[in-house]
Model the fold of this input.
Amino acid sequence: MSYENIKLEKGMYAVSGKSFSEVLESLDPTQNYEGTADANLDAFGRQLKRFDIKVGGTGSDCVNKFFATTQSAALFPEYISRAVKQGMEEAKVLDSIVATKTRIDGLDYRTIASVPTEDERELKIVGEGAYIPQTRIHTQDNLVKLNKRGRMLVASYEALKYQRLDLFTVTLKQIGAYIARQQLSDAIMVLLNGDGNDNAAEIISADKEGVLSYNDLIKLLNRLDPHQLTTLIASPAMMINLLQLEEFKNPVTGINFQGTGKIGHPLGAEFIKAASTPDSVVIGLDKSCALEMVIANDVSVDYDKLIDRQLERAAVTSTVGFAKIFTDASKILSV
Done:
């Protein structure tokens, strides 16, 4: 079937277990276009080409181009979904703290966990016929809590129909960045308090109450052993305290911060500034094994309203939860 012969309709958004793009790909597989001029496009991109809709660049079309025909209007919700996802991905905050992403079809999910004892962590020599140390893996008692985050798009078609799509995309990407920040806040709450399975992070007290020292960071690093300290999370106020430590004032750190805007530190971990983190703590974690991100819905849009009512009022949401994998892979430094 040629991509020009596919009949587009809003029912394609309601196929169980498949996104709109996945439905399109099943009807028009990208692998069939290897070696052609359309090889760099996916099924959705070929539909944009079919209706001559340019969503980016200086020559981008206006919003009303999507509504030139009934079939092209069916592409509009997917365009919005992709722009929001792009904003979430560009925020990049979750990739620095999440070890794995699990996609589920439903709202109930029970994760697994492994809580080794000190004896089980030790890599012992196993003699012939001797007992082999065990690592116990079990399902958690409580379900992962999923939170729906999003925004309501409220606008009249008349107000937007002559707006360029590249400008509209900027607004949608900001919605995605907002959702990503909210999800970061949810992840931080799980790191601090646990996921409901009695697995809150261990609290390490600073040497001097109310004062952050480099020695405190070293203590945090050591207490994470055998895990690696890959990421530090702190509030904007705590970030100021970190940057004022003498160890941050060496020339290499200063040049990196002034030249790139990225905050490094002598321990080599990535630093994340998050307003949802309490001012009195620094969270240290090993991103390779600390946190699981459970995705019930990447980005969901009110496709029927967007197609039939041409915007007006439509929700853009994402349903995600977080669960701890190894409880001891994250620690809290209390200052």
User: Anything to note?
Assistant: The chain has one domain: 92-335. The radius of gyration is 24 Å. The chain has a mean pLDDT of 88. Residues 165-193 form the longest helix (29 residues).
